[in-house]
Amino acid sequence: KKTLPMPEKILTSLQEIIDSQHQSYNNLELKQKLKEILWQLDPAPDATCFVPPADPDAFHVGHHAKEMVAGTSKKKNKKSTLIPTGFRALDNLIDGGFGKGELVVLGGRPGMGKTTLMLCIVRNILEKSGFPVYYICSDDEAATMLKRLHALMSGISTHDLDEVATESTWNRYIDTLGMIEKFPLYLDDSHPAYIERIMDACRWMKAEHGTR
Question: Which residues contact 136 (CB under 8 A, 6 or more apart)?
Fold first, then answer.
């Protein structure tokens, strides 16, 4: 007797079920049974079949609450991995700061100060937390972003140097630049900044420089 491959065995068995049970099942019952069988063979995320759990209270919120308490208890004595933005009101809104591996989108219309706010957050992270920062300059060159960050930290722009280049102003300018040079800050103005390249670059920065 010829032995059928496993997929054909399954299909043959399903056909036998349909042939033998078609009269005793209505269409909805038969479809449900077949869905249950298929779901057990391949419980894919997009499966549409619902199989009732053995415990009728399996979906009750109490189960999830217990898991939440257990997870929180493990974190109780651990040092926080959140990265504060340096803005107390903003940190309170986002539960203490940026979480490890989170994607946070800062949006707004042109000219509303998105880049300035982000540079302020970058400055705060570098000065207060010391975590490495990888900044992808998709719109500007790295030198332009460095000038803006330097002006933000020193209060001096390149225009000020041309107009009022006093000794104290120049010294403050150089001192601030020297401080920025010591930060674990990485500016990348490579183009084009498409999403696949950004993902690969972030993985590389994580492995090489410990960015979060």
Answer: 188, 189, 193, 198, 201
* Whole-number Å distance between alpha carbons of 202 and 212: 9
Residue carrying the six token digits 């490890």 = 100
User: Helix (H, G, I), strand (E, B), or coil: what is residue 49?
Assistant: coil
Q: How far apart are CA 7 and CA 32, in angstroms?
A: 21
Q: Say how far apart CA 91 and CA 88 lie, in whole Å.
A: 5
Amino acid type, 210: G
- Please give the Cα distance from 185 to 208 (Å, whole number): 13
Q: For residues 27 and 109, what is the distance between their CA atoms, to the nearest angstrom?
A: 55
pLDDT tens-place values along the chain, 212 residues long: 455 555 677 677 767 766 776 566 666 676 777 676 666 666 565 555 566 677 778 788 888 888 888 777 666 655 667 899 999 999 998 888 898 888 888 888 988 999 999 999 999 999 988 899 999 988 788 988 998 999 899 888 777 766 666 888 888 888 999 999 999 999 998 887 788 888 889 889 999 998 88
With a CB cutoff of 8 Å and minimum separation 6, the contacts of 133 are 122, 125, 126, 183, 184, 185, 186, 211
